[in-house]
Amino acid sequence: MMDTFPGLHEHISALADGELPAAELELAFAALDTDTGRQAWRAYGLIGEVLRAGQGAGALSAGFGAALASRLAAEAPITADDLRPVALAPVATPGAAEPLAAGPLPQP
Hints:
Elements: H1 8-16, H2 25-32, H3 35-53, H4 64-74, H5 80-83
Helix pairs in contact: 1-2, 1-3
């Protein structure tokens, strides 16, 4: 899904923290009128609750560590091929001048 509101998460986070400038409220409320915006609002709300609750409130269930270890063991191991750099094609900027071709340096 394309983010039709640039900075959606930043605006919603600042709104949740009470730090969004009044001039940007309309944009934040428009973002909250989207599925992505509502999901972000819920996520930031949960994050805030955990941070306000302090230590101990976010304790993991007794079986969490075992379940996580089991899922990690089931994943395929990372190989050297997975870590090999990938060559990316150059990105042309619209309206940008073409790069100059490199040629031989003049000899003195």
